[in-house]
Amino acid sequence: MPWIQLTLQTDKANNDKAEQALLDAGALSVTLRDAEDNPVLEPLPGETPLWDEIILTGLFEADINTEALKSEIKSQLGEQTTLKLEALEDKDWVRAWMDDYKPMQFGKRLWVCPKHLPPPDPNAVNLMLDPGLAFGTGTHPTTALCLEWLDYTNELNNGIKDKQILDFGCGSGVLAIAALMLGAKHCDGTDIDPQAILASKDNAIENRVNEKLDLFLPADMPADKLHESYDIVLANILAGPLTELAQQLAAYCKSGGDIVLSGILETQSEKIIQAYSPWFNLEPITVKDDWIRVTGKKK
Predict the structure, then answer these.
(1) Looking at the 3D structure of the chain, how many domains does it have?
(2) Residue of 131, 161, 136 whose CA lies nearest to 147
(3) Are residues 259 and 192 both part of a single domain?
(4) pTM for this one?
(5) What is the tens place of the pLDDT at every residue in 176-221?
(6) Which is it for strands 110-114 and 125-129: parallel, antiparallel or unpaired?
């Protein structure tokens, strides 16, 4: 069945009141999005930060009296409130997302494919993911930069083969799983979000590498792995946490080992270079759509 969608703009201070007004008027669901360009990046688990200016959208049944609906909302929020009403076509949104998510190639041999589609190249390294997961599927430039590094390094000199690898901030586990499928001996993954740990485990099972992947919340990392345990440390998070974690990530990495950092805007490159230069000989940055990858060798 079709739906009626009502949209209005509010601010952080009045959001709760506006959201309740939509629910009181019969909204079946209410969604929030940024009205400006102030993204909230990587909140901690359980946090629900809000933007300064917010667009609220309420979803109503198609047979609702729209004039009465507008009148009720304005009676609670003020006659000056601007409301936008539109009919919304009924759609299988999960199927629509699945239809839009296509197999992606990274480097020469590595593909990330939605598990509901056959791989384009059966002889390639085909990493199968559930496109419904929001933890990282390769579509974002930062993930792509890391996947391309893994494939290139392996193609160049078998640089992944038999290595011990840490995926710090593992999300969906896509980087650790890709490394294992390219020949890594073992990977550890860690993330602050328990749901990410579960997603990584499920994806590892789907790709038959779960016996070579151990997953931890940061507080549960074994003590014997905290110092020079890894040949390669991958961290695709954000520039702020990467800067704060420089000494910790350096400690994980063996002498002569590789660091691979992403989740960094090009404008933030100098901050990251300064933070990691004391421990690593850094290589020239790689840029993709305003995002960068920083790599280097442990001194």
Answers:
(1) 2
(2) 136
(3) yes
(4) 0.71
(5) 999 999 999 999 999 988 888 998 999 999 999 999 999 999 889 9
(6) parallel
